[in-house]
Amino acid sequence: MTPAIRVFRERNVAFTLRPYRYEDRGGTEVASRELGVDEHGVIKTLVMEDERKNPLVILMHGDREVSTKELARILKVKAIHPCDPATANRHTGYVVGGTSPFGTRKRLPVYMEETILDIPRIIVNAGKKGLLAEIATADLMRVLKPVTVRVAR
Q1: DSSP E strands: which ranges in the chain?
Q2: What is the CATH number of the domain that holds 138?
Q3: Which domain holds residue 99?
Q4: How many domains does one find in the chain?
Q5: Per the confidence metrics, is the pTM higher than 0.70?
Q6: What pLDDT digit, counting tens, does each position of 16-73 carry?
């Protein structure tokens, strides 16, 4: 059991595990293909830092990218950049490719692309490579309380 699944159970999040055949560097494109779902509803968990090394999580549609310049502007910092895998692991306790926004080692601020709210049920990482979970977007909002932003490109 992963820390994310523990959080789902502790916080009464109804979830369906969606295992798939993981491919290195395949990302949400492989996950959506393997599961037969729209990549837009497979949500990436990205670990980033500002110029002072303050970490954050940003949740983004699988078929979109994060405008780090726009996110930095919104957060009123000079720059935002993705963490390298070792740093992301240190912040979250998860291995890149298996990072869930739930059950992170440290409590990190969570930001979410606002248009994710348009999708009633989403698929997020459940805490290990090749294991996703389908959950209600409302449960993600209730448990994580992310700040919504518009930074997709």
Answers
A1: 15-19, 43-50, 55-61, 80-82, 110-113, 121-128, 131-136, 147-149
A2: 3.90.960.10
A3: 3-149
A4: 1
A5: yes
A6: 999 999 998 889 999 999 999 999 999 999 999 999 999 999 999 999 999 999 999 9
